[in-house]
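Students often ask why inverse folding is considered easier than folding. One informal answer: many sequences map to the same fold, so there is more than one right answer. In these notes we will look at a single instance of the problem. The structure comes first.
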C-alpha cells in the first residue's frame, strides 16, 4: 500500500476550488496553481461516494509521468513539477468547458447508449464532447453545439482534434507496451494567455489517471481502473497499484 513521504508543508494561497478528486490552491508564484489529489472516489455523477486508499498518490505520480512524456512528443501541458506525494504545481489556465472523450473500444455509457456489447473494438477511434457541467450530468454535445454556443472556435476544435489523436496514438502504444489496452479516456484543455492578455494558446490540462480512463489487461481483459469501484468489483486499490507498478512508478 502506498505510504506518504513526510515532507514540509508547501506554501499555498487561497483555496480556489474543490472537486470530486482534487483541491486547487493558488500557487506561491503568479500564474500557478497547486493541485492536491484526494483519495475520494465518486461515480455516477457523485451519486456513489467512497474512498480508494492511496489513489491520490498514484494519480499525482501517474499524471506527472504522462504529462512529461506528452511534452516530449510536442504536446504542451499545464504541468510544471510534482511537489510531493499528493501535490503538483501547474500553470493557471482558463479551462475550455468541454470534456473531450476518446474511445478506442466500446465500453461504459457508449455500450449502454448504443446497445453494443462492451469490449467491441471500434474500426477507428471516436472523439466525443460533453459539456463540462456536473449539475447537468456532463451531457454529450455535438460539434455544432460547441460552435453555436461559442464554447470553442473552429480553430480551437481543429487543434483539439489534432492534439487528441496524437495523444491517443502515443498513449495506446505506451500502455500496450506494459500489457494494457487503453479502452477510453477523457481530456481537458485550457487557454493560457500571453502577457498582453490578448493572444493565447491551447494546452492540455487537468490529469490523466485510472480515474478518467479505462484500462484493461491485454491478456485477461481484467479492469484496472475506476470501474472496479463503480460496479462493486472490488480490488480497486490493487488495480490502481498494478497500473502504477507496470508504469514503473515508485509508491
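Output (designed amino acids):
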Amino acid at each position: 500500500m502506498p505510504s506518504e513521504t513526510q515532507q514540509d508543508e508547501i506554501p499555498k494561497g487561497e483555496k480556489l476550488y474543490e472537486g470530486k478528486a482534487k483541491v486547487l490552491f493558488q500557487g506561491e508564484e503568479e500564474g500557478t496553481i497547486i493541485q492536491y489529489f484526494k483519495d475520494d472516489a465518486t461515480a455516477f455523477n457523485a451519486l456513489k461516494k467512497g474512498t480508494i486508499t492511496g489513489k491520490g498518490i498514484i494519480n499525482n505520480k501517474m499524471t506527472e509521468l504522462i504529462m512529461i512524456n506528452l511534452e516530449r512528443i510536442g504536446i504542451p501541458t499545464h504541468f510544471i513539477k510534482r511537489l510531493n506525494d499528493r501535490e503538483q504545481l501547474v500553470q493557471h489556465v482558463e479551462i475550455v468547458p468541454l470534456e473531450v472523450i476518446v474511445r478506442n473500444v466500446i465500453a461504459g455509457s457508449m455500450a449502454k447508449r448504443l446497445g453494443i456489447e462492451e469490449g467491441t473494438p471500434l474500426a477507428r477511434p471516436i472523439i466525443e464532447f460533453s459539456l463540462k457541467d456536473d449539475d447537468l450530468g456532463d451531457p454529450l454535445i455535438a460539434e455544432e453545439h460547441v460552435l453555436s454556443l461559442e464554447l470553442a472556435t473552429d480553430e480551437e476544435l481543429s487543434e483539439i482534434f489534432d492534439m487528441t489523436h496524437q495523444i491517443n496514438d502515443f498513449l495506446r502504444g505506451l500502455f500496450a507496451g506494459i500489457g494494457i489496452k487503453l479502452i477510453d479516456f477523457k481530456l481537458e484543455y485550457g487557454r493560457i494567455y500571453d502577457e498582453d492578455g490578448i493572444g493565447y494558446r491551447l494546452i492540455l490540462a487537468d490529469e490523466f489517471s485510472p480515474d478518467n480512463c479505462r484500462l484493461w489487461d491485454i491478456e485477461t481483459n481484467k479492469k484496472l481502473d475506476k470501474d472496479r469501484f463503480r460496479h462493486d468489483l472490488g480490488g480497486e486499490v490493487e488495480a490502481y497499484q498494478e497500473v502504477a507498478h507496470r508504469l514503473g512508478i515508485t509508491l
